[in-house]
Amino acid sequence: MDVILSKLFASVGDELHVLDCMAYLMILMAACTFITLLFENVPYGRYATSRYGFPVNVKFAWFVQELPAFLVPLCLVLGTSASKTTHLPNRLLLAIYFCHYTQRSLIYPFLIRGGKSTPFASFALAFVFCVYNGYMQVRYLSHYADYPADWVTSPYFITGSLLWLVGWLVNIHSDHILRNLRKSGETGYRIPQGGLFEYVSGANFFGEITEWAGFALAGQSVQGVSFFIFTLSVLASRAFAHHRWYLQKFEDYPKSRKALVPFIL
């Protein structure tokens, strides 16, 4: 793989410049996505529609679309001379990334119960994003990110890592609550109860946004920041859409709940 990449990039500086450009492009995509989602819900789950292509089985879609976010980085770390992986800060940031996507791509899809099929357009866009972002994040961390030896004891790294851990646990617990809303054989929707759902409609989204905010803080790179901004633009929109939907669907939906941020928003 090193041979292939070396042919694509004439020098180290060239690829690092490309990785930076990819990050700025992701921020631009986040802005465009945010504006688009002011007028249109993300077409998946309860908002799925045939306008966005033929339906793809939800378990298959989740597994295949998320898998590149795990496999592409794995190839970059194992199949190339990833010189920066000998440094502790880089190793820990890579571990944070892989911890999330091991669960998201290899475990989560097989825990899904029921669920509506995913329109092909949503599936394809998610697949492309996972390839793009997986390459950008892990290529930077494994080959170019340069941290001082004591970075792991810095306030940025410690605070960011703890923030990531809290978000990761909230995300996993919230997904568990959502999976168990229906009993075997039941259909339809129910009001989520327990955990952070007592305070917000988008507890799972809040958890994932918090994860990548922590990752960006711990790594202090434009690549990490761009991922956080993109995640925020998409998942905040989903949280507000879900909140509006719950309020319209259920007369007894708790009026004290916020959409995304407890007690605030």
Automatic annotation (TrEMBL):
Keywords: Differentiation, Endoplasmic reticulum, Lipid metabolism, Membrane, Microsome, NADP, Oxidoreductase, Sexual differentiation, Transmembrane, Transmembrane helix. Pfam families: Steroid_dh. InterPro entries: 3-oxo-5-alpha-steroid_4-DH, 3-oxo-5_a-steroid_4-DH_C, SRD5A/TECR. It catalyses: a 3-oxo-5alpha-steroid + NADP(+) = a 3-oxo-Delta(4)-steroid + NADPH + H(+); androst-4-ene-3,17-dione + NADPH + H(+) = 5alpha-androstan-3,17-dione + NADP(+); 5alpha-pregnane-3,20-dione + NADP(+) = progesterone + NADPH + H(+); 17beta-hydroxy-5alpha-androstan-3-one + NADP(+) = testosterone + NADPH + H(+). It is an enzyme of class 1 (oxidoreductase). It is found in: Endoplasmic reticulum membrane; Microsome membrane. This is 3-oxo-5-alpha-steroid 4-dehydrogenase. It comes from Esox lucius (Northern pike). The gene is SRD5A1.
